[in-house]
Every structure is written in structure tokens, then in C-alpha cells.
């Protein structure tokens, strides 16, 4: 079923279209969830909630951009919402951060598992900051508002997170295999500026 | 974003190309039950609650009708003869004279036929009645009196009996329980509460009346009253000793006199009251941004304002003569709000374009350049929303001031939202635009917003069993009416002004 058929079918409440959407895009959307969530179980919850949101809100998709990007945006926001709720049960504060080890957790070959393992060791705020700033393209102000910290704190947080990444992968012997893969450039994220 | 070093670029690239295995069948099983079904039932629930409300109102009416059953026969009689009652009353003159004595003995009295000056009403009316009378002491201490002893052989049209003078005019107010007498007036008082029901009878003699003498009492008045075609004997009673908080109901019996009943309130007694409230309200809540994951700016909330809505409620309460009132009921509110925005939105984007360069040899070469594109949009946006709530509530009130028939009460209550319904437009964070939604669609608003509190006051004017008043109030909803995942919060608090009609049976 093509993307157009899936959208049309979902808009008319077709169960087959719903299922096709789940089968077609789950892998892509789970990757986004996995980036935000500290563990696989939470990521699955995020994916499930995101799919429900996407299907129930598909009439809001205006066909002005890529459907996949729209779903990605919905999923990222849903992840942030769920993480915000989860955060209430956690006590991760910046002062309590334990620096991730770059010796024990990361193998010599930097692959997906290595990056994920590194990401999992990061405290909640660092992980969210890296995702929002580095991947999604949010501003420091937006990161700060989401995390409940000032813009300058957000700037400091992101700076430390970037330093962690650099240090974690500083070992020149870590020749990363994924560089051989055809990495796609990220899509530019255009933000509307209102006067 | 500052420039990324190589490691960061590598890291980002890996994250953007993550691949996982997903069991889509299992996932579908979890997702499918939640798709486009849960909100469909909402309108049906509203109809169901509407039906329940109608049943409650109907039940209340039936209850009220039942509470009046005691005197229903007399009321029917009164209505059926209403057209002639004035003339009849003016023409009736008691001719018999029965002297009530203090002796402890029973008298048999024959009620004689009366002649009426109004030929239209009484020229054919005549009756005979047999009745037993006794004096105060026997009546109050003897429980054997029953309907048969008082039953009149005549039916409905007229009444008098020996020794009883009857009038149609009785003016009794709550503040002045002294009955105005003008000639031969007779009065009766029914004192009812949960424990007993008594008919008080008194002499017509002003001297005796003022001295509170000859206050006769008849137990089990209800049993007597329920007899069809039976009309009670009434004599004069001085009501001045009754407390101001007692309730008075007066109504005309067929063609004869005004019957006054007094429902006495005991100090610790609680009596029912029913209220119907209806009025207007206006939202006073201020939305608050929860996150900035959307393009909606905080300052744009100032462009949203509340409109007048309406509210109504049905309440049942219990109140005592100390002025306390406990009440509960069901309420319905409709809140409206509007967003008006006329502004200019400028979007500045950096887009990739192609430029042409002419080199020194005159050769035109194309090369990629970055262009700044500015789009200006003139907005003239109006949208509105409607929020509807059905709450159940419990509360307590206290009458703090009373000037005659006018009373001032303070009230507070807690309400639980059974159901909320929302429709209209809202700013959708997913599409970054204005989206219209209907009440049966899933939206950012909750279908149940939980508890709310209300404080208010009531100014009520009472006339007999009916009270009419106005009740300003402020209602504060503890919880946001929006889902946790929404980008903003609002509690939809509101000010209201209700017109209240209450009935105290």
C-alpha cells in the first residue's frame, strides 16, 4: 500500500490502512523513540502512544510536507511528553550526573549498539538535550523551557553533552564502521519565526 | 547551533540511522483497540445524562405532588368551585351556635341548612351533617376521633357547622401571625412534622382568642383529611404564638373559608427544599503555557477572552430553622470563549538557490547560493470554543441575615465533573495551525476534569412555599481541562449569576 493510500485509508477509518501504517513506519518511528527513551521498554510505550496519536490525528496532516517528517515530529513531541511524565518519578539532577565511561561501555568499533549504550548511560537531561538540540534542531531557549532550566543553563548543558560525546569517542583506534554506510544528511528543520 | 566536530557529526549520523527489529503484529494488537473509538460514545452519554436529568425533574415533580396528597382533595374541590366561591363565601352566615364548654363531655351537633343570598351558588345547596364535638381537653387527650365523627353528609359546595363562623379572608404573613379578624372569622392550623400531625381549633371569640383559650387539638388529622367528601371543621385560632420561622400555606377550601396550615419546624428538624437555578456565567481563567514545543506564543493568549455562557442546576436540600442548609444536585454549564487576532506574521527562511556568475572570459557559470526568503502574512483570525460540563455537587449554606421575607445566605459547595464536552477551534501543536473539532472527536481537552469548588451567596425573597432569589458565585476548577500532553493549561474558572426558584413543601 502506497503512502498516499495509507493516508487516504486512515482518513476514512480503514483498519487495513491503520495496520499498513503501523507495519510500514514502526521501524522508523521506533528509532526516534529509542533515541529519547532510556530503555527499550519505555521506547516501546512511546512508539505505541505515538502511533495512536498519529492515526487519531491524521486529519491534521496538511500534505504540505513529508508525511514521514510529520510523523517524526508527532513522535518526538509525544516522546517528550511521556518523558516529562516519567521524569516526575525520577530524581536525575545535573549535580548528580555520573560521567559515562569511554572505556568499558564502548567497543573498539563504534556501531549503533555502542552509541545506544553511550546514550543509555546519559542522565535524562543530557539525553533530552542532545536529542532536542543536536538532532531535532531546537534552540537553547526551547531546550531550557522544556527541561525547566534557564537558557544559559541549557547552553552549558548542551556544551557538556557535546564534550562527553567527543571524549567518549576520542579514541582514534575506534574506527567506526558506520562511516562506510551511506549516511543520509539530516533534513533541514525550518522553524517559523513570528514577529 | 555551532559547527559540529567530526565526532559529533558521526554520533549524529548514527542516531539518525538507527535500525531496529519491530514485531509489528504484536504492536498492532496493542495499538488497534485505541483507534477512533473511545470518543464516539460521548454524545450518547450526554443523551443518557439528559434523560437522567429529565427523570430527576419528573421524579421531583411527582414527589412534590405526593407531598401535597394530604390536601389534594380539598384543592381539587377548591378548583372545581372556584368560580362561585366568592359569592358563596360572602353569603354564608352561621346561624347555629354551639358553645364550647370546658366540660369533658361530647356533644352531638346537627348542622343546619344554610340559606344563601347568592342564588347562583347556594339556592339549591343544602346539607345535613352529623358531627361530634368535644372540647380542648378531650380532643387533645383522646385519640379515638376519626373521620366518621366529622363526616358531613353534604358534599363539597358549602360548609358551616354549629358554633363555627366562617370567613374567606385570612391574611397571614410570616412576620405577623396575628390573624386579622373582621366579624365572624374562623381559622384552623395544621401542625405537621415527622412525629405528629395535629389540627388546632380555636374559638372565634376575640377575648378567648387573645387569651389563647379554647385552643383545641385533634390528633391524626391526616386520617381525617384523607377521607373524600369530608371537610374539616375549623374554628378560630390565634396563631401569634407561633414562631416566625414556621411556614404558612393558605388555600381556599370549597366555598367556605380559607384554611391555614402551619408546618412547625422543630429546633433540630430538617425540612426539604427544592431549587432550580438558571443564569449566566463568564470564564475568568487565564491559560498558562506548559511547554514551548509548539509555535503558539504565550502573549497570544491575551487575544483569547471569555464570552457569556449559561448554567443551570437542579438541587435538593435540607434546612433547619437555624438557617443551615445542606444540599446536593446536578449542574450543567456551557462556557464560551473567543480568540481574535489581527496581526502580521513574517516568516524568514533561508533557502537554497542558484546564482549565475560571469567570469573574466564572459562564461556564465551556475553556482549554489543561499537566499533569504521573507513571507509576510496578514492574519485576521477569529475562532471560538464551547465547553460544556455536567457536574454533581454537595454543599452547605447558612442564612446570615433576614429582613422580613428577604434573606441573605452564604453557600459553599464541591462539585465533581461527570462529563465535559468541548467543541470549536483550538491551536493544534501537531499541525501548528488552527483546527476545528467537534464534540465527538478526540481533542486536547479532557472528558472529565474532576473536582471543583464554588463559593457564593444568595438573596432570596420568600412568599409562602416559594422562594425567588439571585445567586452570584465563583467556581474554581482544581484541575486543568486540558490533557496532560497539551502545550498549555487552563482551569476554566468562571463567575456566574443565577436566578433561583425554590420550593419548600
Characterise the protein shown here.
Chain A has 195 residues and is mostly helical. Chain A folds into two domains: 1-90, Rna Polymerase Sigma Factor, Chain: A; 92-181, Winged helix-like DNA-binding domain superfamily/Winged helix DNA-binding domain (Arc Repressor Mutant, subunit A), CATH 1.10.10.10. Chain A has helices spanning 3-11, 15-36, 40-56, 67-87, 112-121, 124-135, 140-147, 151-168. Chain A starts with a helix and ends in a 27-residue tail after the last helix. With 505 residues, chain B is α+β, with helices and mostly antiparallel strands. Helices cover 17% and strands 41% of the residues of chain B. Chain B has an eight-stranded antiparallel barrel with strand order 8-10-11-12-13-15-16-18. Chain B has a three-stranded antiparallel beta sheet with strand order 3-4-5. A two-stranded antiparallel sheet of chain B has the order 1-2. The chains are: A mainly alpha (195), B alpha+beta (505). Chains A and B meet through α2, α3, α4, α5 and α6 of A and α1, α2 and β11 of B.
Amino acid at each position: 500500500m502506497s503512502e498516499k493510500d495509507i493516508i487516504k485509508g486512515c482518513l476514512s477509518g480503514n483498519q487495513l490502512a491503520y495496520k499498513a501504517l503501523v507495519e510500514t513506519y514502526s521501524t522508523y518511528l521506533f528509532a526516534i523513540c529509542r533515541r529519547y527513551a532510556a530503555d527499550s521498554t519505555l521506547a516501546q510505550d512511546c512508539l505505541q502512544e505515538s502511533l495512536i496519536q498519529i492515526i487519531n490525528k491524521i486529519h491534521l496532516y496538511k500534505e504540505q510536507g513529508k508525511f514521514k517528517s510529520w510523523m517524526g515530529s508527532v513522535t518526538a513531541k509525544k516522546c517528550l511528553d511521556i518523558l516529562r511524565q516519567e521524569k516526575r518519578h525520577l530524581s536525575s539532577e545535573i549535580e548528580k550526573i555520573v560521567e559515562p565511561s569511554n572505556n568499558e561501555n564502548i567497543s573498539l568499533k563504534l556501531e549503533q549498539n555502542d552509541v545506544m549504550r553511550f546514550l543509555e548511560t546519559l542522565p535524562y537531561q543530557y539525553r533530552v538535550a542532545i536529542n532536542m538540540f543536536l538532532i531535532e534542531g531546537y534552540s537553547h531557549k526551547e531546550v531550557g523551557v522544556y527541561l525547566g532550566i534557564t537558557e544559559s543553563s541549557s547552553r552549558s548543558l548542551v556544551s557538556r553533552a557535546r564534550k562527553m560525546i567527543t571524549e567518549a569517542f576520542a579514541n582514534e583506534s575506534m574506527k567506526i564502521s558506520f562511516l562506510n554506510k551511506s549516511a543520509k544528511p539530516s533534513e533541514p528543520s525550518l522553524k517559523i519565526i513570528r514577529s | 547551533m555551532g559547527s559540529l566536530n567530526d565526532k559529533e557529526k558521526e554520533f549524529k549520523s548514527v542516531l539518525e540511522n538507527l535500525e531496529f527489529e519491530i514485531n509489528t503484529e504484536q504492536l498492532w494488537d496493542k495499538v488497534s483497540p485505541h483507534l477512533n473509538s473511545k470518543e464516539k460514545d460521548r454524545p450518547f452519554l450526554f443523551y443518557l445524562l439528559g434523560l437522567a436529568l429529565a427523570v430527576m425533574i419528573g421524579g421531583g415533580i411527582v414527589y412534590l405532588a405526593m407531598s401535597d396528597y394530604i390536601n389534594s382533595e380539598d384543592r381539587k374541590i377548591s378548583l372545581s368551585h372556584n368560580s362561585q366561591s366568592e359569592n358563596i363565601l360572602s353569603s354564608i352566615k352561621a346561624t347555629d351556635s354551639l358553645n364550647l364548654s370546658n366540660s369533658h363531655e361530647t356533644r352531638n351537633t346537627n348542622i343546619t341548612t344554610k340559606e344563601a343570598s347568592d342564588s347562583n351558588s347556594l339556592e339549591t345547596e343544602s346539607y345535613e351533617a352529623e358531627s361530634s364535638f368535644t372540647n380542648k381537653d378531650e380532643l387533645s387527650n383522646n385519640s379515638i376521633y376519626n373521620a366518621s365523627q366529622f363526616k358531613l353528609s353534604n358534599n363539597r359546595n358549602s360548609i358551616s357547622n354549629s358554633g363555627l363562623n366562617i370567613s374567606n379572608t385570612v391574611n397571614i404573613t410570616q412576620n405577623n401571625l396575628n390573624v386579622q379578624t373582621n366579624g365572624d372569622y374562623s381559622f384552623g392550623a395544621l401542625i405537621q412534622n415527622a412525629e405528629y400531625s395535629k389540627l388546632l381549633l380555636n374559638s372565634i371569640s376575640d377575648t378567648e382568642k387573645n387569651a389563647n383559650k379554647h385552643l383545641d387539638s385533634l390528633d391524626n388529622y391526616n386520617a381525617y383529611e384523607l377521607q373524600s367528601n369530608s371537610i374539616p371543621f375549623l374554628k378560630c385560632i390565634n396563631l401569634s404564638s407561633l414562631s416566625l420561622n414556621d411556614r404558612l400555606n393558605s388555600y381556599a377550601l370549597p366555598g367556605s373559608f380559607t384554611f391555614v396550615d402551619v408546618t412547625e419546624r422543630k429546633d433540630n428538624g430538617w425540612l426539604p427544599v427544592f431549587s432550580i437555578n438558571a443564569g449566566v456565567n463568564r470564564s475568568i481563567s487565564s491559560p498558562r503555557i506548559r511547554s514551548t514545543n509548539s509555535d503558539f506564543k504565550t502573549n497570544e493568549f491575551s487575544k483569547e477572552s471569555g464570552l457569556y455562557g449559561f448554567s443551570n442546576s437542579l438541587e435538593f436540600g435540607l434546612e433547619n430553622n437555624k438557617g443551615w442548609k445542606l444540599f446536593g444536585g446536578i449542574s450543567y454549564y456551557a462556557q464560551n470563549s473567543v480568540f481574535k487576532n489581527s496581526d502580521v506574521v513574517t516568516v524568514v527562511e533561508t533557502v537554497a538557490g542558484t546564482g549565475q556568475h560571469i567570469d573574466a572570459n564572459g562564461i556564465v557559470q551556475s553556482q549554489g547560493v543561499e537566499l533569504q526568503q521573507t513571507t509576510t502574512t496578514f492574519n485576521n483570525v477569529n475562532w471560538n470554543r464551547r465547553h460544556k460540563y455536567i457536574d454533581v455537587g454537595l454543599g452547605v449554606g447558612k442564612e446570615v441575615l433576614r429582613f422580613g421575607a428577604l434573606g441573605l445566605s452564604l453557600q459553599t459547595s464541591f462539585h465533581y465533573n461527570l462529563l465535559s464536552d468541548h467543541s470549536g477551534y483550538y491551536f493544534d501543536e501537531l499541525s501548528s495551525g488552527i483546527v476545528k473539532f467537534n464534540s465527538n472527536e478526540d481533542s486536547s481537552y479532557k472528558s472529565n476534569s474532576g473536582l471543583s469548588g464554588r463559593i457564593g451567596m444568595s438573596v432570596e425573597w420568600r412568599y409562602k412555599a416559594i422562594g425567588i432569589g439571585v445567586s452570584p458565585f465563583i467556581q474554581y476548577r482544581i484541575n486543568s481541562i486540558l490533557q496532560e500532553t497539551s502545550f498549555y493549561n487552563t482551569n476554566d474558572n468562571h463567575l456566574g449569576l443565577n436566578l433561583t426558584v425554590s420550593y419548600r413543601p
